Amino acid sequence: MSELGEWMRDAPFLRRQRRADGDAVPQPPDVVGLVLSGGGARSSFQIGALRYLYDRVRITPSVITGTSAGSILGSVLAQYPDHAGQRAALAELERIWLDMTSSADMFTEYPWFARLRANMPTWRKVMALRQRPARHDTQQHGMAWSPSTAWDALGTLWDAGRSSADLQTIVRGPSEERAAFTPGPIVDRLLEPHVFSGQRLAESSVALRIAVVGLESGELRYVTNNGAVHDREDRPLVGLERVDVADAIRASCAIPGVFPPVPLGREYYVDGGVRESLPVEVAVDHLGVTRCFAVVASPAGVTPRDSFATADMFEIIMRSASGIMSDELQRDELAFAREHGVAVISPTVDVHDLVTIDPGLIRIAVDYGWMCARDVVADASQERRDLTDEIIATRRRIWEIEEEAFAHGTASDVDVAAAKTELRELLARVPTIELPDGADRWPQGWEQHAFEVEGEPLVP
Question: What is the pLDDT of residue 403?
Answer without folding.
Answer: 87
